[in-house]
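Below is one record:
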Amino acid sequence: MNRLTITGYVGRDPEIRETKSGGKVANFSVATTDKWKDKKTGERKEKTEWHRCVCFSDGLIGVIERYVRKGSHVLVEGQVQTRKWTDKDQQERYTTEVVMSGYVSTLELLSSKAEDSAATPSTPSAPDFDDAIPF
């Protein structure tokens, strides 16, 4: 079974695009941060990972359009998929994404809209992957 659940903060406002067939796709990134205490030094450490999320589910895209913004605290569940593509210099590239489509996907808003607008969590800015990846 290929199923991944992450909880974190959205790095920037989602991008909604229309496909050639007239459907929609939503792209956004979610930061997850692990925190721990170094056993040798006692120093507190943390590491942030960025996860590219792609949603093809019409119902969830509607929720994303209306409620998900930079700083939103979300739970995302989907399948991990790696796809190959060719960049503008004809180099093969690979991208790993959390894909939300069909019945195997979930999106939960963990913070209210008021909380989102009142304070944005202090996570690093999302890297801009979209410039190099064709959709």
Q: What stands out?
A: Confidence is low (pLDDT under 50) at residues 116-125. Residues 6 and 55 are 14 Å apart (CA to CA). Residues 58-67 form the longest helix (10 residues).
